[in-house]
Write a structure and sequence with these properties.
single chain; three-stranded antiparallel sheet; globular
């Protein structure tokens, strides 16, 4: 996967989180060993939280991995878990269903939303 496409997938997840976030972190991507890429989120105080992803994954799996890890970084940077299941205080879970990356209700409710479209559906 190209670095541009990886950045586009990161941007989809960040767009879903921006509605309830106190700020939007800076994001950088750097190569790691064996083809992996480190995604680093940095807040305005220059505190950073990073994680590795395998850009060779199918796009839906890569988007799910980003949607799973980026909210964890928000918790570390801003002490807030996002996005939440509408009408609750539960953070949504990233999942892949029928080849589509979705936010789902971890409590098993019927709500779901494609990653990148939170707040628009």
């Amino acid at each position: 996967m190209s670095p541009v496409r990886l950045s586009e997938l990161v941007a989809l997840v960040l767009a879903d989180l921006s509605a309830g976030a106190p700020a939007t972190p800076a994001v950088s991507c750097s190569p790691l060993d064996e083809g992996w890429v480190e995604v680093l989120l940095t807040d305005e105080d220059r505190m950073g939280v990073g994680f590795g992803v395998n850009p060779a994954l199918p796009e839906a799996e890569l988007l799910r991995a980003l949607a799973d890890r980026i909210p964890d970084a928000y918790v570390e940077l801003y002490a807030i878990g996002l996005p939440v299941v509408p009408g609750t205080e539960r953070p949504a879970r990233a999942d892949v269903v029928d080849g589509v990356a979705l936010w789902t209700d971890p409590a098993g409710g019927g709500w779901s939303c494609p990653v990148g479209r939170y707040g628009t559906t």
